[in-house]
Specification:
31% of the residues lie in helices and 21% in strands. With 388 residues, the protein is of the alpha+beta class. The protein has one domain: Chorismate synthase, AroC fold (4-Layer Sandwich). The strands form six sheets. The chain has a five-stranded antiparallel β-sheet with strand order 9-8-10-16-11. A four-stranded antiparallel β-sheet has the order 1-2-7-4, covered by helices on one side. The protein has a three-stranded antiparallel β-sheet with strand order 3-6-5, with no helix packed on it. Strand 14 and strand 15 form a beta hairpin.
Length: 388
């Protein structure tokens, strides 16, 4: 069975639920590590008032006993503390309906208008509550569980900010581990102090102007064996699966792997990673990683490097032009509580999404019903690779 998950819940509902299916038995589940990732998602310079209310913690409601997965579906629950302030507005009870609370001025760039048209809603809150990036808290929890599977096999996933508002951080010469460690100390999750200073100043300017900023995050996975994914069918390609998953994150507008779009501007001699063989380790190796750790839809054994571009947030405190869907009169877009920039959080979200995709591909290749069986399958494959 493939590894998969579903999420449920609205931004201001009682909470968020995620169900993870296809997870093997015997995997130690580090709840503290999952909660650390949830806390990391809530941090970042430029976040709004919502993060002062929430204290995201995951509660496991099924699939784990005494700290280890059972092989049955794992259910995760994250309480929305802000629900206390929204019980009437988001009540499931028909007697609490209040037409005066309807939101009828859709925000450009958000799901508001198209979702209302598609589902025949006259109140766009019925759309925006589920479309909200609050849902990504559940994804981060799911990614944290996926990391619990990858960790025993030496696979780690790191995420940080590459740029915000067009200001690029310089991380040259640092390993992924070094970039990650330095970025975790930064309020905007960059490992470049000069870029950090300029980015924070730009965030202050945008906040004063009622505007928002987008950016690019980078995700790197290390320790992968060669051969995750497949060249044989379009939907099994690892790079395609990564792009699909990352583009499903709210506000994501572009994904590139390795050099990405830069490969289109260079000759092949400056793009393709030449192949060598190390007699000592008995492994094929590359001295460059322009391909970003994938070839032909499969992991090459080099670090997987993915960048995701996120647009500026759709809620502006100086709202853009819109139309009231009831009266059709010109209007300013509705204002929902929001951030100036959420790119530092997006780095944590992308990290979780990549971890899940890799865990799925890892189980597809070495799948078994328990951690012991997976390890046996992996060890046999690695022996085969060494003797190739």
């Amino acid at each position: 069975m493939p590894l998969r998950y579903f999420t449920a819940g609205e931004s201001h509902g009682p909470g968020l639920t995620a169900v993870v299916e296809g997870f093997p038995a015997g995997v130690p589940i580090d709840i503290a590590a999952v909660n650390r990732d949830l806390a990391r998602r809530m941090q970042g310079y430029g976040r709004g008032g919502r993060m002062k209310i929430e204290q995201d913690q995951v509660e496991i409601r099924s699939g784990v006993r005494w700290g280890e997965s059972l092989g049955s579906p794992i259910t995760l629950w994250i309480e929305n503390r802000d629900w206390r302030n929204w019980e009437k507005k988001m009540s499931p009870r028909p007697e609490d309906r209040d037409p005066n609370l309807a939101v009828t001025r859709p925000r450009p760039g958000h799901a508001d208008l198209v979702g209302a048209l598609k589902y025949n809603h006259r109140d766009v809150r019925n759309v925006l509550e589920r479309a909200s990036a609050r849902e990504t808290a559940a994804r981060v929890a799911v990614g944290g569980v996926a990391k619990c599977l990858l960790t025993p096999f030496g696979i780690r996933v790191f995420g940080w900010v590459a740029e915000i508002g067009g200001m690029v951080a310089q991380h040259g010469g640092l390993t992924a581990e070094e970039i990650f460690a330095r970025a975790e100390e930064s309020p905007v999750r960059v490992a470049d102090p000069e870029a950090e200073r300029r980015i924070m100043a730009r965030i202050d300017e945008c906040k004063a102007a009622g505007d928002t900023l987008g950016g690019v995050v980078e995700t790197v996975a290390v320790g992968l064996p060669p051969g995750l994914g497949s060249h044989a069918q379009w939907d099994r390609k690892l790079d395609g699966r990564l792009a699909h998953a990352l583009m499903s994150v709210q506000a994501a507008k572009g994904v590139e792997i390795g050099l990405g779009f830069a490969t289109a501007r260079r000759p092949g001699s400056q793009v393709h990673d030449e192949i060598y063989f190390d007699e000592g380790t008995r492994r094929f190796e590359r001295r460059t990683n322009n391909a970003g750790g994938t070839e032909g839809g499969m992991s090459s054994g080099e670090p997987v490097v993915v960048r995701t571009a996120f647009k500026p947030l759709s809620t502006l405190m100086s709202p853009l032009h819109s139309v009231d869907i009831d009266t059709k009169d010109e209007a300013k877009a509705a204002i929902e509580r929001s951030d100036v920039v959420a790119i530092p959080a997006a780095a944590v979200i992308a990290e979780a999404v990549v971890a899940f995709v890799i865990a799925d591909a890892f189980l597809e290749k070495f799948g078994g019903d328990s951690l012991v069986e997976i390890r046996r399958n992996l060890d046999g494959y690695l022996e085969h690779v060494r003797s190739f």
